[in-house]
Amino acid sequence: PYHIKVRFEIVENTNLEKEYYAPYNGLLVECFPLSEGYPVAPVAQAVGEGDSIDLTVEYIVERNANPIMFLEIKPPSNLRYISGRQEADSQMKKRFLQLADKYPSFIDVFYGISTFGTRVAYYTLNTETQEIFPSEIEASRSRIVDTAPIGWWDSDIMEVEGLPPGETRFLRMLEEVKARCNNFEASKRQFPGTS
Question: What share of the chain is helix, strand, coil (3-state, %, to 5)?
Fold first, then answer.
């Protein structure tokens, strides 16, 4: 939507993570309206250890009090640093673990989105095999290994990426999540007693 695009354009030259909270909140609330049964909950998470503990905000989209996807935000300037991407990747995989017992049974693919500004990496958890994608790249104690390559953040939510006008990969993924929920709700009405 135009008003969301404008909100992202206002903050596009900032490196402050918190400046992206409002645009992403607006985008998620627009795509997952509360009136349709999709609460979008901002959640503050402690990040780091010892004296360097910081807080970051993520968004969890729910349906019937169950998480159906989540989104984590990082400042765009951190994308260029291996350590920044490794931290984001680690947090994403940790969050999948924390939510593993909470996602609904009808979700066969549970989505997580990692953002650096408007650059996006799509994470998935296959709920049947419990496999997370992108797969883990093994670190080394004796050499530097880029365990979260910059190419994972290959999508920009502001770009159309060869799709029909106004439809980004990001919005297409959000619609897929919503469709899974709606299909499940329809099957419950058609076949009462299913869960």
Answer: 40, 25, 35
Q: What is the DSSP letter of 20?
A: G
Structure confidence by residue, pLDDT tens digits, 96-125: 999 988 888 888 889 999 999 999 999 999
Longest Cα pair distance anywhere in the chain, in angstroms? Answer: 58
Element (H, E) at 109: strand 109-116
DSSP track, 149-194: -GGGG-EETTS-TTSSTT--HHHHHHHHHHHHHHHHHHHHHHSTT-
Answer whether 148's CB lies under 8 Å from 88's CB: yes
HSE-up of residue 25 (Cα within 13 Å, Cβ side)? 11
CB 82 within 8 A of CB 144: yes
Whether the CB-CB separation of 185 and 107 falls below 8 Å is answered with: no
Q: pLDDT at residue 177 above 80?
A: yes
pTM for the model: 0.85
Residues 97-130 as b or e (16 or more Cβ within 10 Å = b) = eebeeebbebbebbbbbbbbbbbbbbbbbebeee
- Report H helices in the chain: 2-11, 21-31, 82-99, 169-190
Residue found by looking up tokens 């909100």 in the block: 7
